[in-house]
Amino acid sequence: MADTKLLQTHYSKSIHGSHILHFHNVLDAYGHLSFRHPTDSSLFFMACSIAPALIATEADLIEYRVSDGEPTNPNAAQGYIERYIHSEIYRRFPDINAVVHSHAESVIPFTISGVLLKPCYHMAGFLNPNGVPVHDSANDVVAPNVPDLLVRNTYMGEALARRFDGDNKVTLMRGHGYTVAAKSIELAVFYAIYTQKNAAIQSAAVGLIAAVGGSMRNLRLLNDDEARERTASVATTAKRAWELWVVEVSDSTLYPKH
Ligand SMILES: [Zn+2]
């Protein structure tokens, strides 16, 4: 009974999470959030192939095996092609319980320009101070798949998952987007939103420096100590953001109530 209630709570959190990510422009009609089954670590859930803003109930969620990214019910509805991003991260990292994959526009320039995305402000200390890694899925394409940069199988998912070694929380994907791994649904949503905001801030700062003919060495980023301290404190304050974000989407007529 307690297990059922826990699972219901996770269903609800994940649906709120998808709506929140849409509300904050991290997801549009594409991208996805998943979570690991709270009492059976060999399983995870993500929505069937619909826009995240329109997920209405747990009936829209599909249960998948971590081992191969395939649904436990062979008659399940059509799922997202890129579910292997999620399955391989869960397979590699037993302490990861939620994953977000996004195509947010503000992040894309950092996947194609050679300019490293770094923590610019105190809300994004979870980003790697040495630069967020950029993964190129084109290197993992095996015939007969076409090189469209989508993560289409466990092989491609495993290559991406390796980028999260060393407690890395965010990986950029060349010409595609980014993926976030976290210990909870709330933290995954938090990291996804503030990665996008940090990218917009960094682009704006670089533009300001260029406008006055300044040197990029004037870009003052968080140092290692500052980033580490902020990462530790975010985990304790993320609840405040989550509570606000739930109210925002609950008040909007766009998102189905559940
Ligand atoms: Zn994608």
UniProtKB/TrEMBL annotation:
Gene3D superfamilies: Class II aldolase/adducin N-terminal domain (3.40.225.10). It comes from the Eukaryota. One of its GO terms (molecular function) is actin filament binding. It comes from Trichoderma asperellum (strain ATCC 204424 / CBS 433.97 / NBRC 101777). One of its GO terms (cellular component) is cytoskeleton. This is Class II aldolase/adducin N-terminal domain-containing protein. SUPFAM superfamilies: AraD/HMP-PK domain-like. Residues 12-203 form the Class II aldolase/adducin N-terminal domain. Transmembrane segments: none annotated.
